Design the sequence.
């Protein structure tokens, strides 16, 4: 059996257990909602969830656009100049280790309860892993490529853009994957903590009402967002970095 | 031997590295010339500065003392139109095909696509890889990658080809085969070649002149003209003359490897 088949079987199995347990009445519907409660929530409150989803998607979209751009630019610039990298790497690493959520009350005080605080937190969540990954990917590029490029007449700018940044690209995309996942978490979690709109808000609102079916629907939609984003980035990573695995194997053999 | 014009002239060049206040003379007072169409090998023990010396001739490493002339002009920066370069590692860009890798130097100066294409095709044919132009580096063997690197080094039709232990990563069989190939390419293109190696056989088999280097500081201790007829053949390596030259070089090198 292929790993893919095993994965599908595993998920289908869990699903079946959930269906059976709900149908046979083994579970408390307040703790574990039945599938029909989820479907019921979808039918009854579809417009509200669609609206919440669109709010969350806009917040995530804005956070990704800002966080990606800022993270990649800072990572590239810091990676380009050795002295700057020495300065930036420890700061980025320690900032990455801080549970940013402790700062959220501050952000609320600064920009209020509305969408700006979600976007700000989403950007912060994604920025550090993206900048750090970009920085280390640039620094890890084999310097012999730069020497080669200089020898064939590349300018400093061409060496950086067409050789070093391109060689670092698969690593940068790995960082984007981590950063994007953290951005989605950041946006949804801050919606749950304090807000008046979005998927996270609906999840936490219905939790307090013990509408477990609605909570599940919210969770399912949030998972869907993560799955789609992850799929897009995974495809991108594979397409732009197909050579990397082979390259590393060859490097070890040599 | 007829007089030929000089394409490379190193005048007392040296390279000093300073580390923690201590100075290390990697290359000291090296002078030599390379004539048009000449094949010169530089041999020496590892760490003797032969790669540093080559990097200085390429303009990739600053010169601490002396001056290096390419075509009579002092060298300050890499001269990609005059000097092609092949490294020990092929350093092919992994996301480009063989043909695109050969084109890469031309793409930097914005040369027209069609011209680039046909130039790359001609060079891949020269190195015997015309059937592999659409292959990616990871689909090529070590020897094939070096052939692509040689084609890339020649793509701007430079008069000089500098090679830094280009076949050192290959096994003995491929190494001899590539040596033969290189001589064929050299015969067809008549480039001036400077070839760094630590293999005495390779140096003698390929070259008109062998420059022998020694360590600490790295310097040239002898210039040996190889008086073997061309085309060269493998059997010559077993001959009495080659044996004598090899012993002489070994003597010079091993005096300090004690």
Sequence:
């Amino acid at each position: 059996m292929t790993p893919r088949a095993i994965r599908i079987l595993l998920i289908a199995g869990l699903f079946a257990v959930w269906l059976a347990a709900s149908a046979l009445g083994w579970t408390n519907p307040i703790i574990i909602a039945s599938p029909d409660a989820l479907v019921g929530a979808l039918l009854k409150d579809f417009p509200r969830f669609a609206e919440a989803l669109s709010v969350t998607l806009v917040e995530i979209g804005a956070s990704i656009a800002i966080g990606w751009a800022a993270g990649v630019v800072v990572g590239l610039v810091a990676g380009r100049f050795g002295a700057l990298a020495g300065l930036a790497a420890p700061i980025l690493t320690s900032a990455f280790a801080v549970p940013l959520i402790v700062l959220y009350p501050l952000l609320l005080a600064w920009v209020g309860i509305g969408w700006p605080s979600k976007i700000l937190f989403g950007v912060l969540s994604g920025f550090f892993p993206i900048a750090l990954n970009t920085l280390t990917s640039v620094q890890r590029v084999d310097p012999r490529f730069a020497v080669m490029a200089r020898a064939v007449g590349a300018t400093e700018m061409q060496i950086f853009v067409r050789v070093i940044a391109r060689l670092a690209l698969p690593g940068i995309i790995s960082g984007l994957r981590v950063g994007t996942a953290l951005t989605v978490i950041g946006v949804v979690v801050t919606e749950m903590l304090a807000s008046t709109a979005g998927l996270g808000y609906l999840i936490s609102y219905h939790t307090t009402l013990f509408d477990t079916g609605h909570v599940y629907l919210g969770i399912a939609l949030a998972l869907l967002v993560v799955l789609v984003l992850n799929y897009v980035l995974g495809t991108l990573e594979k397409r732009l970095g197909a050579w990397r695995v082979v390259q590393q194997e060859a490097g070890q053999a040599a | 031997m007829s007089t030929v014009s000089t394409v490379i002239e190193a005048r007392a060049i040296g390279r000093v590295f300073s580390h923690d206040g201590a100075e290390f003379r990697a290359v000291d007072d090296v002078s030599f010339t390379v004539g048009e169409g000449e094949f010169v090998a530089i041999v020496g023990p590892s760490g003797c500065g032969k790669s540093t010396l080559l990097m200085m001739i390429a303009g990739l490493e600053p010169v601490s003392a002396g001056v290096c002339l390419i075509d009579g002009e002092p060298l300050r920066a890499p001269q990609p139109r005059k000097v092609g370069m092949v490294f020990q590692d092929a350093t092919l860009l992994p996301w480009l095909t063989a043909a695109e890798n050969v084109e890469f130097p031309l793409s930097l100066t914005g040369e027209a696509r069609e011209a680039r294409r046909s130039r790359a095709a001609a060079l891949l044919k020269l190195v015997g890889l015309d059937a592999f132009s659409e292959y990616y580096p990871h689909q090529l063997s070590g020897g094939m990658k070096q052939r692509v690197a040689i084609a890339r080094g020649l793509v701007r039709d430079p008069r000089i080809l500098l090679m830094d232990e280009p076949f050192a990563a290959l096994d003995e069989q491929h190494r001899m085969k590539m040596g033969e190939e290189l001589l064929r390419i050299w015969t067809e293109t008549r480039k001036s070649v400077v070839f760094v190696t630590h293999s005495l056989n390779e140096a003698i088999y390929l070259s008109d002149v062998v420059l022998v280097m020694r360590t600490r500081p790295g310097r040239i201790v002898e210039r040996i003209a190889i008086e073997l007829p061309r085309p060269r053949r493998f059997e010559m390596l077993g001959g009495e003359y080659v044996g004598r030259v090899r012993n002489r070089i070994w003597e010079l090198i091993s005096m300090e490897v004690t």
